[in-house]
Amino acid sequence: MTHIHVIHENSAWLEPLADALDAQALPWRDWFLDRGMFDLSRPPPEGVFYNRMSASSHTRDHRYAAELTAVVLAWLEQHGRRVINGSRALDLEISKARQYAALEAAAIRTPATVLVAGKELLMAAAQRHFAAGAFILKPNRGGKGLGVRLFYTVDALGDYVDGLDYQPPVDGLHLIQEYVRAPAPLITRAEFVGGRFVYAVEVDTSAGFELCPADACPIGDVVCPATEGPPAKFTIVDDIDAGLKRRYEAFLAANDIGVAGIEFVTDSAGVVYTYDVNTNTNYNRDAEARAGRSAMTTLAGYLGAELKRLSRHRDAAD
Question: How far apart are CA 3 and CA 29, in angstroms?
C-alpha cells in the first residue's frame, strides 16, 4: 500500500492533521526529520510526500532540520515522487528575502525592505533608509513572528542591538522593513490548499507580532497568542479581493507551492502589502469552530485525492 508521508519536526503541530487524516481513514506515515540515515543510492518509498518543515525549526533545538529536509526533498524529486511543497517551497519558507523577490516577480507588492548582513551595519542601514519613520526589524529566517520588532526611532534600534535581548538571526541575515500603518491593528492571512483559496483569517496584532495560529505552541514560548490571546484574536472571513486572490494563486502555481498561508496588511489608502508566505501553515481551531470551517479536513481530503490519483496512474502503468 502506498502512503501519505508527512515531513515535519513538530509533533504538536502535526496532531490536528493526524486527526483529520485518521478521520478520513487515509494511510499515512510520520517523517520526523531532525536527524536520520538515508541511503541516497536507493529509491525512496512510494507515495505522496507532504513537506511541513518550518522556518522556526531551529527554535525547537532542530538546528539542521531544514537543511536535512532540503536534501531529502532533492532525493524524492530526483526519483519523481509526488512532493507537495517541495524544494522551491522550502527555499522560500526559510528566506523572507527570497520570498519577497518571488512575490515582486508575480506583481505582488511587498514592503520596502533592506537586507543587512552584519550586526554592526544595522544602525547605518536604518539611518540611511528609515530615519524618517517607524520600521520593523526581522530575521530573514524566522517563523511564528519570532524576532520581529517594531521601532519608532533609530536610537531605539541601537538600544536593542546593544542590549541583552538582542538575538542574532540563525542565518546571519537581518531585514529592516518599512512599517505599514493599518487603520486598525489587523493583518489578514489567506489560506490555500491545493493552490486554491480556502478562507482568510483576520488577526488582531494589538498584542504584538507573534502570530502563530496553532492551538499548541512549542514548550518554551513565553507567549502563545493562539491560547493566551483574546477569544476573537483570530476571525475567519470567507473571501478576499478577487484580483489579489488570483495573483496569489498564480504565485503559488509558479513556485510549486500546494499549501500556504499568505499574510498581508492594508494601509489607510487601501494599498495592500504582502509580507509573509508560510508554507507550513497552521489553523486556529477556535476560530474555525466559530465559523463552521475546517482547513485540516480540506487538507486531508486534498492529500487523499493526490494519493488516489497516484495509485490510479500506477495501476494504469502496470
Answer: 7
pLDDT in the model for residue 314:
77
**47-51 vs 82-84, strand pairing mode:** parallel
CATH number of the domain where residue 123 is located: 3.30.1490.20
Taking 60 as the threshold, does the pLDDT of residue 216 lie above it? no
Judge if 11 and 38 occupy the same domain: yes
In this prediction, residue 299 carries a pLDDT of 98
Q: Which residues fall within 8 angstroms of residue 228, CB to CB, at 6 or more apart?
A: none
User: What does pTM read for this prediction?
Assistant: 0.91
Residue 249 is part of which domain span? Answer: 182-298
